[in-house]
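REQUEST
  id: r-88c1
  op: predict_structure
  target: Protein Wnt
  payload:
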Amino acid sequence: MKKTSNTLPLCLLTILLLSQICSGIKWLALSHTPTSLHINQTQHCKLLPGLVSSQAQLCRSNLELMQTIIAAAREVKKTCQKTFADMRWNCSSIDIPSDSSKYRPDLDRGTRESAFVYALSAAAISHTIAQACTSGDLRLCSCGPIPGEIPEPGYRWGGCADNLHYGLVMGSKFSDAPMKMKKAGSHANKLMHLHNSEVGRQALRDALVMKCKCHGVSGSCSIRTCWRGLQDLKDIAIDLKTKYLSATKVVHRPMGTRKQLVPKDIDIRPVRENELVYLQSSPDFCAKNDKLGSVGTQDRQCNKTSIGSDSCDMMCCGRGYNPYTEKLVERCHCKYHWCCYVTCKKCERIVERYVCK
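RESPONSE
  id: r-88c1
  status: 200
  body:
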């Protein structure tokens, strides 16, 4: 009998395992899903990148939910990059290729950057689902409940509240699924990711505020109809960025009968529920280093007049910068005509920009 090699099956098995191990935010690869793809058949779940088996099962049993989750993945990418546009680490690594078997290194090493991304991802998916309930995009949920407390005089409960409860339940079920697998990487990383995801959801709970609409003769606002609605995701991201800047480095050590994450330098107290935590220190992100996940700051635009993180001195890490000019075409000399249109001229101006050497 001819002996056959088992090399190929072993390679295929390795690729399969890599795609399943510690894929906590690999679902963000859904941001690459073509807008033309509408998830309305169970076989479509096989076409979606980055899902572990339990997430694929959730897809098959909640097809209409997947379009919302895809929208959340796109929102995470856009919001993260915008929130960190003024810093050396600008969230470029969140753009996970759909065919990648693992994260970029800066999101795989348990750094404060991965802490932020996990927190934002957990907040975003629940945020998007909660608002999809309100807008009627999901048939399985509707408006959030009317608050039990009696409103102040001149206020009344009404409108359609964001369904935060449903968003949190379904969002955590999907985003936490990879960390609850047996082969989900080290126990320390798993605890870190689950903790930071919950910090993101807590930031979302704190972002549920009262929104009102005025009623009354001639806009007098004698009565206000109010509901509970979520703040924009960009505002939640700014809150999480503050937590990122003050994140606590932790270690995984025995506490009682089991190992837990405790602050490295102040382990006399437990980790707080509202603080982001990380296990590994980050590089300075000044120079390109593929092993650490740093793309460097060469050719990044900087602000010559700033004294913050986007300043040319900070952004360029002391290497200096190069100026260049750019021509902007803008609307100007706009004039309102009765009734009812505006005409404008086009004006050109030259602005000076600066990029890091």
